Amino acid sequence: SGVLGPTGNRRGTVFRLFAGGLFVAGGLAAFLLGQVNTGQLRFGLLAVVATLVGVAMLTVPFWVRLSTELGEERRERIRSGERAEIAAHLHDSVLQTLALIQRQADQPREVRRLARGQERELRGWLYGPTGYGPPGIPGTPMVATVAEAISTAAAEVEDTYAVAVRLVVVVDCPLDERLAALVAASREAMVNAAKHAEVREVNLYAEVERDSVHVFVRDRGIGFDPGQVPGDRHGLADSVRARMERHGGSVTVRSAPGAGTEVHLEMPRPADRADQAATSGSEERW
Questions:
Q1: In Å, what is the CA distance from 272 to each residue of 137, 174, 211, 277?
Q2: Which is it for the CA torsion 171, 172, 177, 182, positive or negative?
Q3: How confident is the model at residue 264, as a pLDDT?
Q4: Is residue 240 within 8 Å of residue 185, measured between CB atoms?
Q5: What is the rounded CA–CA span in Å between residue 264 and residue 217?
Q6: In the β-sheet with 261-268, what is the strand arrangement from edge to edge?
Q7: How far apart are CA 117 and CA 154, in angstroms?
Q8: How many other β-carbons are positioned within 10 Å of the β-carbon of residue 218?
Q9: Taking the domain 144-285, which CATH number applies?
Q10: What is the C-alpha to C-alpha distance for residues 187 and 172, in angstroms, rounded to an integer?
Q11: Which helix (H) or strand (E) holds 54?
Q12: CA atoms within 13 A on the CB side of 270
């Protein structure tokens, strides 16, 4: 690449070199044909070919060894860079988190929150689109599907409110404006459960169907009477129900004092995207 220049100019450079070589060869051939007879020319060509073959046979082992050594050196540089990156990441994240856990060992709730956050970060770093797991599609954003967006929202709720969110996502599909509103409403439902249900665990089940997406947010907390919600409580009315209705979705709340709460959110899918659910995978668990 250093001889030929940038990629965009390589084709023209190769063509010029090839054409120049043809002209030079043609000129030499014309000169030789004018100076010697055909028999002498044939003998000279055979001598040149034999010399080139001999030189190639003598130097091929050297070039093979040189190429192997260069490949090994390149792989060793890559491995060294990866080891340095892993060491830096472990220092900046895992070791720092362990130090925080050691200082807050008398606060089990905070220790669990730190441990969950660190586990999630490591899993994303190892197996995410930019990690060491199966390679993702180049150029795709980190949050491009419903499952990824819901997982990110659940992680934020876990870190903020120190509760465990258990996720099950069946099938997946690309994220659009409607489904982004569904994810935001799901997040608010998880926040309400974390703040008011007096539980340490919230369950979320999401399923992508051909013409709609369903999300169920459940907790086994103290529950409430949906008809007796105070007027100053706008989370369920505005952040969940109103947001879903603005985008054509619906919300169903089932709850009773002492019986926990289930929030069912449903969002229709555009017809041109409905067929993609069948090709996105059978089931994903987070």
A1: 22, 12, 10, 11
A2: positive
A3: 96
A4: yes
A5: 7
A6: 250-255, 261-268, 212-219, 201-208, 164-170, 284-285
A7: 11
A8: 20
A9: 3.30.565.10
A10: 17
A11: helix 38-89
A12: 10
Contact yes or no for 253/226 (Cβ under 8 A): yes
**Given 3-state DSSP classes, what are the helix, strand and coil percentages for the chain, each rounded to the nearest 5?**
60, 15, 25
Buried residues in 182-208 as b, exposed as e (16+ CB within 10 A): bbbbbbbbbbbbbebbebeebbbbbeb
Q: Is the dihedral of CA 99, 100, 104, 109 positive or negative?
A: negative
Regions of the chain where pLDDT drops below 50: 1-8, 134-141, 274-275, 277-286
Q: DSSP string spanning 65-126? A: HHHHHHHHHHHHHHHHHHHHHHHHHIIIIIIHHHHHHHHTTT-HHHHHHHHHHHHHHHHHHH
Task: Supply the pLDDT for residue 233.
Answer: 60
Q: What is the pLDDT at residue 284?
A: 44
How many Å separate Cα 195 from the centre of its chain?
Answer: 31
Domain chopping of the chain, boundaries = 144-285
Amino acid at 140: T
Give the pLDDT score at 136. 42
Q: At what angle do helices 108-127 and 96-103 cross, to 10 degrees?
A: 170
**Residue 22's pLDDT is what?**
62
Instruction: Say what the pTM is.
Output: 0.54
pLDDT in tens, 19-68: 666 655 655 565 555 555 666 666 666 766 777 777 777 777 888 888 88
pLDDT at 232: 58
Residue 278: its pLDDT value, please? Answer: 44
Half-sphere exposure of 243 (CA within 13 A, CB side): 21
- Token look-up 């220049």 returns 5
Cα 102 to Cα 81, 92, 111, 116, distances in angstroms: 30, 16, 9, 15
